[in-house]
Amino acid sequence: MAEQRTEAIEKLKGFLEGIDFTMLTTISEGKLHSRPMSTQEMDENGDLWFFTQDDSRKIEEIEADNRINAAYSDPDGNTFVSVFGRADVVKDRAKIEELWSPIYKAWFPEGLDDPHICLLRVHVEDAEYWDAPNSKIVQIAGFVKALVTGTEADMGDHGTVKVNPAGA
Amino acid sequence: MAEQRTEAIEKLKGFLEGIDFTMLTTISEGKLHSRPMSTQEMDENGDLWFFTQDDSRKIEEIEADNRINAAYSDPDGNTFVSVFGRADVVKDRAKIEELWSPIYKAWFPEGLDDPHICLLRVHVEDAEYWDAPNSKIVQIAGFVKALVTGTEADMGDHGTVKVNPAGA
Q1: Does position B135 have pLDDT exceeding 60, yes or no?
Q2: Is B137 exposed, middle or buried (0-12, 13-18, 19+ CB in 10 A)?
Q3: CA atoms within a 13 Å half-sphere pointing along the CA-CB vector of A138
Q4: Staple B145 to which of A67, A107, B79, B120, CB 3.0 to 4.6 Å?
């Protein structure tokens, strides 16, 4: 079981590598809203990490309802990933330092001492991916079919990974 | 009011032009799932149109809960758009013919007579966009700040458009 979980995380990591931005969808006042976020890392537990500010609107939304979808799109590479998970706000100084880079000072002028700097952690439950190797035209045809109609890919690679299934 | 609505639709259309695929998020069994979909058009009412099959899982989900988010990402162009709307299934033959292209025969082998061919229409309520002109490095810096932290862009263009506000 632990091995399967590690495999699922490694598979997912492979897909997300090179797709920096995700559209993170939250539920707010009965609506679904998304915004671009830059992914800092997927850690060894399969958790996704983002920098944010504790006074931002999405933090309010997440505190009211922690369910999120993180959608990763790489149209050039024909890779799309849907991640479902639950988000929480983390103010762990050690983790902030671990992910910190001096270039972030541009938007946190006070750096690590910014009173609002915090991390958003997404505890991933499951994910679904659509992936087509670019080299095979037949697979792309099957994949395009999947994309146009939103069905499963006929010949491209499509599947789900359970990282932390609810109730497990 | 009608003029403002037309302007909102034109603005949104401009952003979506050239971003074929969207990640369409639905709510299902208490989770948020997304999948890549190819956008056929945004019509003069601001409705989004997609081809799909009436026996697909997302149609089931939409019939149970019609709220969706359509997330458009163009990382190369620094453009990201979040669209909130309500989806329904449309089996209007005239509209299907209007959007039909012979290349779609690859995935609807029976063409227009495919018993499952249908359209998904998204009635857009509001949208939010993040857009940075590529030519101005300062604006990009501000924009990257917005992206990393999920806050509003400092110098890039960010805003909301109300297409069909609920209750209006």
Answers
A1: no
A2: exposed
A3: 1
A4: A107
B20 contacts A71? CB cut-off 8 A: no
Contact A36 B151 (CB under 8 A): no
Helix, coil or strand: residue B74: strand
- B21 → closest Cβ in A58, A68, A75: A75
A113-151 as b/e: b if 16+ CB within 10 A: ebeebbbbbbbbbbbbbbbbeeeeeebbbbbbbbbbbbb
Q: B100 — contact with chain A (CB < 8 Å)?
A: no
Q: Do B145 and A35 touch (CB under 8 A)?
A: no
pLDDT at position A103 is: 78
Q: How far is A82 from chain B (nearest CA, A)?
A: 5
Provide the whole-model pTM. 0.85
**Nearest residue to A7 via CA among A44, A60, A56, A62:** A44
Q: What ipTM does the predicted assembly reach?
A: 0.84
How many angstroms separate the Cα of A15 from the Cα of each of A128, B26, B33?
10, 22, 17
> Is residue A92 within 8 angstroms of chain B, CB to CB?
no
pLDDT digits (tens, 9 = 90+) for A55-105: 988 899 999 999 999 999 988 888 899 999 999 999 999 999 999 988 787
Nearest to A149 among B30, B107, B145 (CB): B107
Q: How many whole angstroms separate alpha carbon A131 and alpha carbon B17?
A: 24
Task: Give, for A10, the enclosing helix (H) or strand (E).
Answer: helix A2-16
Q: Which amino acid is present at A113? A: D
Instruction: Establish if B30 touches chain A: CB-CB under 8 angstroms.
Output: yes
